[in-house]
Amino acid sequence: MKKHDKNNNTHFYGFAKDMLDRIAQNLNFSVSLFEVADETTGHRLENGSWTGMIGTLIKKEADLALGELTINYERSSVIDFTKPFMNMGISILFKRPKQDPPKLFSFLQPFHDRIWMCMIGAYAFVSVYTFAVARVSPYEWKNPHACNPDSDTLENEFTMLNSFWFAMGSLMLQGSEVAPRASSTRIISGVWSFFTLILISSYTANLAAFLTITRMSTPIQNADDLSKQTAIKYGCQYGGSTYRFFQKAKIPTYEKMWNFMSQNPDVFVNKSQMGIAKVKGGKYAYLMESTPLRYQVSKNCDLMEVGGELDSKGYGIGLPKNSPYRDIISNEILRLSESQVLLRMYNEWWDVSQPKCEQREDSVSSTNAAQLGMDNLGGVFVFLVGGFALALTIAILEFCVNAVVSSKSDRQTLCSGLAEECKFSVNCCGPSKKPVRLMKHKISKKLLKGYGGRSHPRGSDSFT
Ligand code: GLU
User: Fold this and answer.
1) How far apart, in whole angstroms, are the C-alpha atoms of residue 24 and residue 328?
2) What CATH number does residue 46 fall under?
3) Residue 417 vs residue 361, higher pLDDT
4) Are residues 291 and 353 in the same domain?
5) Of the N and C termini of the chain, which has fewer Cβ atoms inside 10 Å?
6) Which residues contact 50 (CB under 8 A, 6 or more apart)?
7) Residue 286 belongs to what H/E stretch?
8) 38 close to 52: Cβ distance less than 8 angstroms
9) 38 and 147 in a common domain
10) Reduced to 3 states, what is the DSSP secondary structure of residue 412?
């Protein structure tokens, strides 16, 4: 970086300057710095000549070139490089999105839409299912008059409305006055309560995470996302090593990105600063090397790095071909690197110790709260379906046992007994009361007493 004093003299400062000063001090030479005319690292022109720092070295106008000069094969054939003093890779610079305003219906966020739909579906189904099973099970029919054991009708508490209310009570963890008496309906009640317990617990835990984080929606997460869209433009420095990386790309994603960039030449910039300014303007992602990128991000709170590094390479000091200073400077770079002098300089300039921008912590935690979907909660639905199947089996058993016993005691044939019970049960629009004759037999009476009498006070009614 450079700055001008009052007398308009240019002063260079920064990591590279500090490192060069240290090398010069240790190797006992003095440096005088100047900036190349086009302010670029350099690329090969069609006529074979080179621009920027590389061109300056080839013309032997300088003894060494220092800056964000990436070591690559093409350049190594025309100049010499020292050992790399810094490693990095291509990354994406993007404008930090604004915090999403709080949403009125943010309480819906902990679950994926599909989970909400399935929950509503499960609620409706369980209500209708409880109603149907309760009609089939003989043990859900009870004497409505506690003081009149000779009542000639039996009542079923699970009317359609009560069934919906019963399922709602469980869903809200509140319970309801309607209580199942038969094994089949109790199984439904059990699995439904377990289902709601898991869902409500997951919802509560995830809601807390959603309410405490600040959401920022980043439209792109990596290079792949960039390549799949055209609304956000993206580019790099013209002629630099990043440009060459994409130009020579063989990986489909990077090839696709190159096709887009080469068809839209306005996405290329001549200097990093122009790219960074474009990013700040919005709707533009700048592909640049991770070290200068992180420097910019550490200084500008409205910038951020997106995704990881696309490749891995290093910065070296450039020297004219066959320069006698190459090995001496390379050794000094290795020595400074091993003694952690370069690391300390890096930490100083990149200010790694404390994040300056308030939003940064939030943006990290925003990745920690994710909507729960079928992948996370599908198992509870499977459990529910299993419970339904079990309840249905038990209900059919209860029904059949009762029909067999009824037919014996009423001296009916089994078929006519079954037919009579079936006819009544399948009539869903039928009454919630049925004549007591359908239940008139000794075993049913015993069973009903045993079932209803213990757990529910209203169930102790006796049947005639
Ligand atoms: N460091 C690159 C070079 O040496 C310039 C920046 C870039 O291409 O991203 O050409």
Assistant:
1) 11
2) 3.40.190.10
3) 417
4) yes
5) N
6) 42, 43, 44, 58, 78
7) strand 284-289
8) yes
9) no
10) coil
Q: Are residues 344 and 390 located together in one domain of the fold?
A: no
> Would you say 13 and 3 are in contact if contact means Cβ atoms under 8 Å apart?
yes
Torsion angles phi and psi, residue 300, rounded to 5: -120, 115
Q: For position 149, what pLDDT does the model report?
A: 72
Task: Report yes or no: 126 and 169 within 8 Å, Cβ to Cβ.
Answer: no
Average pLDDT, stretch 166-173?
Answer: 91
CA 295–ligand 1 middle distance (angstroms): 15
Domain for residue 398, yes or no? yes
Mean pLDDT, residues 187-191: 94
- The proportion of the chain whose per-residue pLDDT surpasses 70, expressed as a percent, equals 83
Instruction: Name the residue of 69, 86, 238, 296 to mutate for ligand 1: max ligand atoms within 8 A of Cβ.
Output: 69
Instruction: Name which of 270, 337, 346 is nearest 16 in CA terms.
Output: 346
The answer to whether residues 294 and 356 belong to one domain is yes
Atom 10 of ligand 1: nearest residue by CA position: 240
Instruction: Tell me the backbone φ, ψ of residue 427, rounded to 5 degrees.
Output: -80, 85
Q: How many CB atoms within 10 Å of residue 276?
A: 20
Give the pLDDT of residue 155. 86
State if residue 40 touches ligand 1 by the CB under 6 angstroms criterion: no
Q: State pLDDT tens for residues 354-363.
A: 666 665 544 4
**b/e for 52-88, b at 16 or more Cβ within 10 A?**
bbbbbbbeeebebbbbbbbbbeebeebbbbbbbbbeb
Range of the domain at 283: 88-100+216-315+340-365
Residue whose structure tokens are 């079936």 = 422
Residue 373 parent element (H or E): none
Distances in Å between the Cα of 193 and the Cα atoms of 89, 335, 339, 340, 391 are 53, 68, 64, 61, 14
In this structure, are 200 and 126 located in the same domain? yes
Q: Provide the number of structural domains found in the chain.
A: 3
Q: Mark whether 206 and 172 lie in a shared domain.
A: yes
Euclidean distance between CA atoms 182 and 179, whole angstroms = 10
Distance separating alpha carbons of residues 148 and 280, to the nearest angstrom: 84
Helix (H, G, I), strand (E, B) or coil at 142: strand
- The model's pTM is 0.62
Locate the ligand 1 atom nearest the alpha carbon of residue 272 and give its number: 6
Q: 149 with 464: CB under 8 angstroms?
A: yes
Q: 182: buried, middle or exposed (CB in 10 Å: 19+, 13-18, 0-12)? A: buried
Do 262 and 346 sit in the same domain of this protein?
yes
Does a structural domain hold residue 331? no
Shared domain check, 123 and 48 = no
Q: Given ligand 1 and candidates 43, 53, 68, 87, which is best to mutate, with the most ligand atoms within 8 Å of its CB?
A: 68
Does residue 76 lie in a domain region? yes
